[in-house]
Design goal:
Layout: E1 2-7, H1 11-27, E2 32-37, H2 40-48, E3 55-59, H3 67-76, E4 82-87, H4 93-96, E5 103-106, H5 111-127, E6 130-135, E7 140-144, E8 148-154, E9 157-162, E10 166-170, H6 173-178, E11 185-189, E12 192-195, E13 199-203, E14 206-209, E15 214-216, H7 222-233
Parallel strand pairs: 1-2, 1-3, 3-4, 4-5
Antiparallel strand pairs: 6-7, 6-10, 8-9, 8-12, 9-10, 11-12, 13-14, 14-15
Helix pairs in contact: 1-5
Amino acid sequence: MYHLAVCDDVEQDLADAVAVAASLLKERGVAYELQRFRTPAALSAARERGAAWDLILLDIMMDGQDGIELAEALREAGDETDLVFITSSPEYALAGYRSYPVSYLLKPLTREKLGPVLERCLERRQKLPSLVLDALEGGKITVPQGDIRYIEVFRRELVVHCGDRSLSCAGPLSAALDTLPAEGFYRCHRSFVVHLAYVSGIQKYRFLLRGGGEVPIAMRHYQEAQERWLAYLK
């Protein structure tokens, strides 16, 4: 499932961007879920509630907080979602690139403009490694790394918590951790591994997660946990 968000305060431009993106994804046979937002605040609120996307199409010039401010806030929070700016004001391109967007497209958004950019995003997503685990009933379960919020050992099962589901698997937590990138995943407790991209804050002795929820931190790991999260943000 490919998750896409489109944010534009002009209703017609928003509708056009949604239609173009949906048409291109259908043409490529990609299952997708698309959310539309009229303000950066609405998108930001959805992100705080735990929403996650593979790509955000973001207008730069909007009332209130502009798209660049939102993009910079996402990056400062450790969000690595692909960003594509869409706007009618090319003079803002330099400022926009501080947020490392995939591309900068001028309105009106067309299939010819978005098509090659979307193709690059889809190809890059396909190359991202996944976590492959043993299913309890036999066989394998493949979980994209970007979907993982945290992993825990519960009773004798390994439970992978994603944004919209939890998967029960077999095997030790250490084996799963060994296949995940050390800079993004941290074992903060003997029974928990947290994906630092989903952490919104830290308290004694727990990580707070975007969208609600928390992951415990072992007392002896608390100082290290703070350092690891700050290093990830930087």
